[in-house]
UniProtKB/TrEMBL annotation:
Signal peptide: 1-19
UniProt lineage: Eukaryota, Metazoa, Chordata, Craniata, Vertebrata
Gene3D superfamilies: Mannose-Binding Protein A, subunit A
GO terms of molecular function: carbohydrate binding; growth factor activity
Sorted UniProt keywords: Disulfide bond, Lectin, Secreted, Signal
Spans traversing the lipid bilayer: none
Major localization listed first in the record, in broad terms: secreted
An annotated GO cellular component: extracellular space
Occurrences of domain C-type lectin (ranges): 19-133
The protein's name: C-type lectin domain-containing protein
A biological-process GO annotation: ossification
Listed InterPro entries: C-type_lectin-like (IPR001304), C-type_lectin-like/link_sf (IPR016186), C-type_lectin_CS (IPR018378), CLec_Tetranectin-domain (IPR051663), CTDL_fold (IPR016187)
Length: 134
Protein backbone atom coordinates (compact mmCIF):
# COMPACT_ATOMS: atom_id res chain seq x y z
CA UNK A 1 0.00 0.00 0.00
CA UNK A 2 2.75 2.40 1.06
CA UNK A 3 4.82 1.50 -2.05
CA UNK A 4 1.77 1.99 -4.31
CA UNK A 5 1.12 5.46 -2.83
CA UNK A 6 4.73 6.52 -3.18
CA UNK A 7 4.78 5.16 -6.73
CA UNK A 8 1.65 7.15 -7.62
CA UNK A 9 3.08 10.35 -6.19
CA UNK A 10 6.33 9.88 -8.11
CA UNK A 11 4.35 9.00 -11.26
CA UNK A 12 2.23 12.15 -10.91
CA UNK A 13 5.33 14.23 -10.26
CA UNK A 14 7.03 12.95 -13.43
CA UNK A 15 4.06 12.71 -15.78
CA UNK A 16 1.42 15.03 -14.38
CA UNK A 17 0.94 18.68 -15.23
CA UNK A 18 -0.43 20.98 -12.58
CA UNK A 19 -2.42 24.19 -12.73
CA UNK A 20 -3.68 25.61 -9.47
CA UNK A 21 -5.39 22.87 -7.50
CA UNK A 22 -5.63 20.46 -10.43
CA UNK A 23 -3.26 17.83 -11.80
CA UNK A 24 -3.73 16.63 -15.38
CA UNK A 25 -2.54 13.20 -16.50
CA UNK A 26 -2.50 10.99 -19.59
CA UNK A 27 -1.00 7.53 -20.06
CA UNK A 28 -1.16 7.51 -23.87
CA UNK A 29 -4.42 5.59 -24.15
CA UNK A 30 -7.17 6.83 -26.49
CA UNK A 31 -10.94 6.62 -26.60
CA UNK A 32 -14.09 8.24 -27.91
CA UNK A 33 -15.82 10.82 -25.72
CA UNK A 34 -17.88 8.32 -23.68
CA UNK A 35 -14.88 6.03 -23.18
CA UNK A 36 -12.71 8.99 -22.20
CA UNK A 37 -15.25 10.12 -19.60
CA UNK A 38 -15.64 6.59 -18.22
CA UNK A 39 -11.88 6.00 -18.08
CA UNK A 40 -11.28 9.17 -16.06
CA UNK A 41 -14.22 8.44 -13.80
CA UNK A 42 -12.95 4.90 -13.12
CA UNK A 43 -9.57 6.39 -12.23
CA UNK A 44 -11.27 8.65 -9.66
CA UNK A 45 -10.95 11.78 -11.80
CA UNK A 46 -12.77 13.72 -14.49
CA UNK A 47 -12.13 14.22 -18.20
CA UNK A 48 -9.86 17.28 -18.35
CA UNK A 49 -12.08 20.36 -18.28
CA UNK A 50 -10.15 23.62 -18.66
CA UNK A 51 -11.74 26.55 -16.83
CA UNK A 52 -9.00 29.11 -17.44
CA UNK A 53 -5.91 29.67 -19.57
CA UNK A 54 -3.52 28.16 -16.98
CA UNK A 55 -5.48 24.91 -17.02
CA UNK A 56 -5.73 25.00 -20.81
CA UNK A 57 -1.95 25.44 -21.04
CA UNK A 58 -1.35 22.46 -18.73
CA UNK A 59 -3.59 20.28 -20.94
CA UNK A 60 -2.06 21.72 -24.11
CA UNK A 61 1.44 20.69 -22.91
CA UNK A 62 0.26 17.06 -22.51
CA UNK A 63 -1.22 17.13 -26.03
CA UNK A 64 2.13 18.33 -27.37
CA UNK A 65 4.07 15.73 -25.33
CA UNK A 66 1.96 12.89 -26.77
CA UNK A 67 1.48 14.53 -30.17
CA UNK A 68 -2.21 13.56 -30.04
CA UNK A 69 -5.35 15.69 -29.94
CA UNK A 70 -7.57 15.12 -26.88
CA UNK A 71 -11.22 15.57 -25.97
CA UNK A 72 -11.98 17.96 -23.16
CA UNK A 73 -14.92 17.75 -20.78
CA UNK A 74 -17.09 20.22 -22.67
CA UNK A 75 -19.92 19.52 -25.14
CA UNK A 76 -23.13 20.88 -26.63
CA UNK A 77 -24.94 17.53 -26.78
CA UNK A 78 -27.98 18.87 -24.93
CA UNK A 79 -28.49 22.17 -26.79
CA UNK A 80 -26.72 22.91 -30.07
CA UNK A 81 -24.42 25.91 -29.65
CA UNK A 82 -24.55 25.96 -25.82
CA UNK A 83 -21.34 24.41 -24.57
CA UNK A 84 -21.35 23.03 -21.04
CA UNK A 85 -19.05 21.24 -18.65
CA UNK A 86 -19.82 17.64 -17.67
CA UNK A 87 -21.55 19.07 -14.59
CA UNK A 88 -24.08 20.83 -16.85
CA UNK A 89 -22.66 24.27 -16.04
CA UNK A 90 -22.30 26.59 -19.06
CA UNK A 91 -18.68 27.42 -19.96
CA UNK A 92 -17.37 30.91 -19.28
CA UNK A 93 -13.81 30.37 -20.55
CA UNK A 94 -13.13 29.19 -24.13
CA UNK A 95 -10.21 28.98 -26.52
CA UNK A 96 -11.79 28.25 -29.91
CA UNK A 97 -9.71 28.03 -33.06
CA UNK A 98 -10.63 30.55 -35.76
CA UNK A 99 -14.00 29.68 -37.30
CA UNK A 100 -14.94 27.27 -34.50
CA UNK A 101 -17.27 25.98 -33.27
CA UNK A 102 -18.84 25.27 -36.67
CA UNK A 103 -20.81 22.07 -35.99
CA UNK A 104 -19.29 20.62 -39.18
CA UNK A 105 -21.62 18.19 -40.90
CA UNK A 106 -24.18 18.97 -38.19
CA UNK A 107 -22.70 16.30 -35.93
CA UNK A 108 -19.94 17.98 -33.90
CA UNK A 109 -21.05 18.06 -30.25
CA UNK A 110 -17.76 17.35 -28.47
CA UNK A 111 -14.62 19.48 -28.18
CA UNK A 112 -11.05 18.51 -29.01
CA UNK A 113 -7.93 20.46 -28.15
CA UNK A 114 -5.37 20.88 -30.91
CA UNK A 115 -1.57 20.78 -30.52
CA UNK A 116 -1.66 24.62 -30.56
CA UNK A 117 -4.00 24.64 -27.54
CA UNK A 118 -7.00 25.92 -29.49
CA UNK A 119 -10.36 24.13 -29.48
CA UNK A 120 -12.44 22.57 -32.26
CA UNK A 121 -15.90 21.07 -31.96
CA UNK A 122 -15.72 17.51 -33.29
CA UNK A 123 -17.76 14.32 -33.49
CA UNK A 124 -17.87 12.55 -30.12
CA UNK A 125 -17.17 9.27 -31.94
CA UNK A 126 -13.57 10.13 -32.85
CA UNK A 127 -10.84 8.52 -30.75
CA UNK A 128 -8.61 10.93 -28.90
CA UNK A 129 -5.89 10.95 -26.24
CA UNK A 130 -7.48 10.58 -22.80
CA UNK A 131 -6.41 13.30 -20.36
CA UNK A 132 -7.89 13.25 -16.87
CA UNK A 133 -7.87 15.82 -14.12
CA UNK A 134 -7.54 15.05 -10.43
O1 LIG B 1 -15.14 16.43 -40.23
C1 LIG B 1 -14.77 17.78 -40.05
C2 LIG B 1 -13.55 17.85 -39.18
O2 LIG B 1 -12.57 17.03 -39.71
C3 LIG B 1 -12.97 19.26 -39.06
O3 LIG B 1 -12.57 19.72 -40.35
C4 LIG B 1 -11.93 20.99 -40.37
O4 LIG B 1 -10.74 20.91 -39.66
C5 LIG B 1 -12.84 22.06 -39.76
O5 LIG B 1 -13.94 22.24 -40.61
C6 LIG B 1 -13.32 21.62 -38.40
O6 LIG B 1 -14.25 22.53 -37.89
C7 LIG B 1 -13.95 20.24 -38.45
O7 LIG B 1 -14.33 19.88 -37.16
CA1 LIG C 1 -15.54 21.92 -35.92
Amino acid sequence: MYCASVFSLVWIFINGNSAGEKTFQANGSEGDFETSKATCSQAGGLLASPRNSAENTAIHQIVVRHNKKAFIGINDIQTEGTFKYLSGEAIRYSNWAAGEPNNGGGTEDCVEIYPDGRWNDRSCNEKRLIICEF
